[in-house]
C-alpha cells in the first residue's frame, strides 16, 4: 500500500511532530509513504489533489496545525483547508484523512500531537475497506 502525506510547515514545531508521528504510524503499519511539505494549511488541498491525480497512492493524509489568532483568518483557514481535504477525497474517490489541527492555542495543539498518527491509521483503514469492497464485486 502506498500512502501520500502532505504536511504544512506553518507552526513549525507542532507540524514537525505531527509529521514525525504520522510517519511512525505508517512504519508500524508497514505502509510505504511519500511526504511533501507545503507552506501552510491552505496549500494542503492542492498538494493532495496533485498526489491524487498521479494515481500512485492508495490513500492520503493531511497534517498541520492552525492555531487561533486575533483575526478572522483562523476561521477561513480552518474551514477552507478542511473543505479542500474533503473535496479531494470525494472528487477522486480516494481515502484522505484530515489530521490538520484547529485549536484555540498552542497547549491544545500540543495535547493533540497524536492526530498525525491517527490520520495515517484512518487513511490506511479506509484504503483497506475500499480494497475489500472492490474485491466483493
Structural class: alpha/beta
Give the helices and strands as they follow along the chain. Answer: EHEHEHEHH
What is the strand arrangement across the widest sheet? 2-1-3-4
Count every beta strand, where a strand is a DSSP E run of 2 or more residues: 4
Distance between the termini: 20 Å
Radius of gyration: 14 Å
Overall spatial form? globular
Approximately how much helix is present in the residues? 40-55%
Describe the protein's architecture and organization:
By secondary structure, this protein is of the alpha/beta class. The protein is 55% helix and 23% strand. The chain is built from five helices and four strands; from the N terminus they run E-H-E-H-E-H-E-H-H. The chain has a four-stranded parallel sheet, with helices on both faces. Helix 2 packs parallel to helix 3. The longest helix is centred in the C-terminal third of the chain and has 21 residues, at 115-135. It is globular and about 50 Å long. It starts with a strand and ends with a helix.
Secondary structure layout plus pairing:
Elements: E1 2-8, H1 12-29, E2 32-38, H2 44-54, E3 59-67, H3 73-92, E4 96-103, H4 106-110, H5 115-135
Parallel strand pairs: 1-2, 1-3, 3-4
Helix pairs in contact: 1-5, 2-3
Amino acid at each position: 500500500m502506498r500512502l501520500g502525506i502532505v504536511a504544512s510547515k506553518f507552526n513549525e514545531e507542532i507540524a514537525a511532530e505531527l509529521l514525525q508521528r504520522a510517519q511512525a504510524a505508517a512504519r508500524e503499519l508497514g505502509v510505504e509513504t511519500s511526504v511533501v511539505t507545503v507552506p501552510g494549511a491552505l496549500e494542503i488541498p492542492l498538494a493532495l489533489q496533485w498526489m491524487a491525480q498521479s494515481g500512485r497512492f492508495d490513500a492520503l493524509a493531511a497534517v498541520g496545525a492552525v492555531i487561533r489568532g486575533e483575526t478572522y483568518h483562523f476561521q477561513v483557514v480552518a474551514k477552507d483547508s478542511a473543505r479542500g481535504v474533503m473535496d479531494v477525497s470525494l472528487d477522486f474517490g480516494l481515502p484522505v484523512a484530515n489530521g490538520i489541527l484547529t485549536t484555540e492555542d498552542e497547549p491544545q495543539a500540543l495535547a493533540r500531537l497524536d492526530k498525525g498518527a491517527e490520520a495515517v491509521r484512518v487513511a490506511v483503514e479506509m484504503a483497506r475497506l475500499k480494497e475489500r469492497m472492490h474485491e466483493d464485486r
